[in-house]
């Protein structure tokens, strides 16, 4: 067949079947940065703090009582306060760098609180709120940023893995861990204390990585009990969503063969409900799911970054009105579930926690120089042993000489 | 003559190359509006547009893989890896594809790709931001690997690397980005891209190094001179191929060689240099070739990096050991 034949026949057929709307949808510009998440966004609490219902997800928060909601509020305030203190500590030279979670508290607390003790979380480097929900001491997080260790906590203690800085790598670890849970028969037994699932955190930028796409493939074909939790905070350092994707991120899941959902990441109730639903499904053997928490990074990418070089302050203003803490406070107040006394008490607790964190950070000892030779291998390694001895001798000669 | 930092030297060099040849395009994460996390590409997107200074998706394998395609189509991509520790997702593309395509095509294709990597430690960063991974790439046939150490080399070497028709891994010493020096921007490069340089003349010991350690070596030579020891410093500049003639000439003069680098010594660049010099200069050597490098450890947390990285004292200690023979 000649080129001309191909072109003309394709053209003739094509015109009949073209679905204009579908083409328009595919070629439309990506949702702009200041989007509101679009009509698919799952929301249970509006930015004004009004409770709204959702046909699929309201059920998952139906049994939350006022105590639970106050608990959510407390978590949100405490993690924001720890974050602010860490930022201050960085400014004062006590931390080398800090990746702030400001604005993402609801995405983290909502999802973190939806986990059971036997579930396992694989974070990136910004999941301070999830760590809090897992019971990880905030000081553990500070060690990495202060430069005294590379993480240094035992992940199995709280089923919260070490922070991962190489973008997207942990999504594969999470998937493999989930495959292990599956092989251990801890999925779909109906025993609430036994069935487990994994949650993997990552950012919008991470969705471009090969590792993340490979994790989606592995999770899908193995029907692994893993929930992919993407915090779409709109920016990957200086790059907005449209440098990573042309479709809303949650829609990617479909192409891999599992469901995706977009939730208002600044609505702690909705995030809790959606994550709980996804984790329940994964634990019961229904396989992976992608959650896109639509949120915003209110601060800089890290303390080394200068967002004024690439984004406008009007955008930040828009998102201020969607603040996760303010909206829950409004809801609690309007329904007389909390009063000034409660809010004041939480603020006091936050200040105390911040003071503890500060003190702990300042009194964190520098590591012993020789400790860098520890924990490299499980078994004795002659090269490491030789270098340790060489280093020790060198150091000793030095101290003696001076 | 202008006074430039290393970062600005590379920036001006990139600009010159882009002006000279519109096939030169830059690719990387955050290199556009932000100008890169080290601001090395500052202002280039504004002047050359988004088609030539491309903010890529956050995917390193994608950056190098698409650069291969662009190069096959006649472009000259200059790819930025944001940090040394983030080149590994692109490792397969670099060592399996970039390095081998010319040989596979029996010379039919060329891949004029430059892979810029800010390298090394000493900036107080968290993990994966301080790696010295030059040996992986130098070990891979089909790639050329170079390391600049001062503003003049930064300015000229980046232009020479872009002009080269072979793929070049181009290391930038990140803890020296803000070091200043004189650059004759309108003159001509004093050296070829693959030449080593005698950075300081001396008689008793040759100290060979490259990249961020060049400054340490020069400071060591200065300190040693005050004690009457004369050190010749050779900046290797090109790690693959190695300019052995320049180095051998120096060792034949001094009779002693100490090689120093930030990377772990085990199977590092120093091992290759030591082996080669021992073969070539055996009868000139008064002492075994010694290495002063990082330990064979994952790069430690930043509070320990001063103990990990060879500093002035450790380099001088190596020099003294060489002189003691
Ligand atoms: C493989 C890799 N490439 C580059 C980087 C440098 N880097 C650190 S964070 C970041 C942006 C991440 O954006 P996103 O995934 O959206 O997560 P966010 O930080 O916004 O939560 C980049 C490019 C890295 N850490 N790892």
Automatic annotation (TrEMBL), chain A:
Keywords: Oxidoreductase, Pyruvate, Thiamine pyrophosphate
Example of a GO biological process term: branched-chain amino acid catabolic process
Cofactor entry: thiamine diphosphate
UniProt domain Dehydrogenase E1 component: residue ranges: 76-352
Single annotated GO MF: magnesium ion binding
Keyword rRNA-binding: no
Lineage top rank: taxon: Bacteria
InterPro entries for the chain: Alpha-ketoacid_DH_E1_comp, DH_E1, PdhA/BkdA, THDP-binding
Protein name: Pyruvate dehydrogenase E1 component alpha subunit
From TrEMBL, chain B:
Mitochondrion recorded as keyword: no
Cofactor: thiamine diphosphate
Keywords recorded for this protein, A-Z: Oxidoreductase, Pyruvate, Thiamine pyrophosphate
Native source organism of the sequence: Oryzihumus leptocrescens
GO molecular function: magnesium ion binding; oxidoreductase activity
Protein name: Pyruvate dehydrogenase E1 component beta subunit
Residue intervals of the Transketolase-like pyrimidine-binding domain: 4-179
InterPro entries: THDP-binding, Transketo_C/PFOR_II, Transketolase-like_Pyr-bd, Transketolase_C
């Amino acid at each position: 067949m000649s080129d001309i034949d191909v072109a003309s026949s394709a053209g003739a057929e094509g015109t009949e079947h073209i679905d204009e709307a579908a083409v328009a949808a595919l070629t439309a510009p990506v949702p702009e940065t200041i989007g509101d998440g679009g009509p698919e966004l799952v929301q249970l609490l509006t930015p004004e703090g009004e409770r709204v219902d959702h046909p699929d997800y309201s059920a998952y928060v139906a049994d939350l009582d006022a105590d639970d909601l106050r608990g959510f509020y407390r978590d949100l305030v405490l993690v924001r306060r720890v974050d602010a203190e860490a930022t201050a500590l960085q400014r004062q030279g006590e931390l080398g760098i800090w990746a702030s979670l400001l604005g993402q508290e609801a995405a983290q607390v909502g999802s973190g609180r939806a986990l059971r003790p036997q579930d396992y979380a694989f974070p990136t480097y910004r999941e301070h709120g999830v760590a809090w929900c897992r019971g990880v001491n905030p000081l553990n997080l500070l060690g990495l940023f202060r430069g005294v260790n590379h993480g240094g906590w035992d992940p199995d203690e709280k089923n919260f893995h070490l922070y991962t800085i190489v973008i997207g790598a942990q999504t594969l670890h999470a998937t493999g861990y989930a495959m292990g849970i599956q092989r251990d028969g801890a999925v779909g037994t109906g025993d609430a204390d036994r069935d487990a699932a994994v949650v993997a955190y990552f950012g919008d930028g991470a969705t471009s990585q090969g590792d993340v796409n490979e994790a989606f493939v592995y999770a899908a074909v193995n029907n692994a009990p893993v929930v992919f939790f993407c915090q779409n905070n709109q920016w990957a350092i200086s790059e907005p969503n449209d440098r990573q994707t042309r479709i809303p991120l949650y829609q990617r899941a479909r192409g891999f063969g599992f469901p995706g959902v977009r939730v208002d990441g600044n609505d702690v109730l909705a995030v809790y409900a959606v994550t709980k639903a996804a984790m329940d499904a994964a634990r019961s053997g229904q396989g992976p799911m992608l959650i896109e928490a639509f949120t915003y990074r209110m601060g800089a990418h890290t303390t080394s970054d200068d967002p004024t070089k690439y984004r406008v302050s009007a955008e930040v203003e828009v998102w201020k009105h969607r603040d996760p803490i303010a909206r829950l406070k409004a809801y609690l107040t309007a329904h007389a579930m909390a009063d000034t006394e409660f809010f004041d008490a939480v603020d006091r607790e936050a200040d105390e926690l911040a003071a503890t964190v500060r003190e702990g950070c300042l009194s964190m000892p520098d590591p012993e120089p020789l400790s860098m030779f520890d924990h490299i291998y499980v078994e004795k390694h002659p090269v490491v042993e030789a270098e340790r001895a060489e280093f020790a001798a060198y150091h000793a000669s030095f101290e003696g000489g001076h | 003559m202008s006074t430039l930092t290393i970062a600005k030297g590379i920036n001006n060099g990139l600009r010159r190359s882009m002006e000279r040849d519109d096939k030169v395009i830059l690719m990387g994460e955050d290199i556009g509006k932000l100008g890169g996390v080290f601001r090395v590409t500052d202002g280039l997107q504004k002047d050359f547009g988004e088609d030539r200074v491309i903010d890529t998706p956050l995917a390193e394998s994608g950056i190098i893989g698409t650069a291969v395609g662009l190069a096959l189509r006649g472009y000259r991509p200059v790819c930025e890896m944001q940090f040394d520790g983030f080149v590994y997702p692109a490792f397969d593309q670099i060592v399996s594809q970039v390095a081998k395509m010319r040989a596979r095509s029996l010379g039919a294709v060329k891949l004029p790709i430059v892979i810029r990597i800010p390298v090394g430690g000493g900036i107080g960063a968290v993990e994966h931001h301080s790696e010295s991974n030059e040996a992986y790439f130098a070990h891979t046939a089909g790639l050329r690997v170079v390391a600049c150490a001062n503003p003049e080399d930064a300015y000229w070497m980046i232009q020479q690397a872009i002009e080269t028709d072979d793929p070049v891994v181009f290391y930038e010493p990140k803890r020296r980005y803000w070091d200043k020096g004189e650059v004759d921007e309108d003159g001509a490069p004093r050296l070829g891209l693959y030449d080593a340089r005698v950075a300081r003349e001396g008689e008793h010991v040759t100290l060979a190094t490259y990249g961020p350690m060049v400054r340490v070596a020069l400071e060591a030579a200065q300190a040693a001179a005050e004690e009457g020891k004369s050190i010749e410093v050779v900046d290797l500049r090109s790690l693959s191929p190695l300019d052995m003639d320049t180095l051998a000439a120096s060792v034949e003069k001094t009779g002693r060689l100490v090689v120093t680098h930030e990377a772990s010594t085990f199977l590092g660049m120093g091992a290759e240099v030591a082996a080669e010099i021992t073969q070539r200069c055996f009868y000139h050597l008064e002492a075994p070739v010694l290495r002063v490098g990082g330990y064979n450890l994952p790069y430690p947390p930043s509070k320990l990096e001063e103990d990990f990285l060879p500093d002035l004292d450790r380099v001088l200690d190596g020099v003294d050991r060489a002189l003691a023979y």
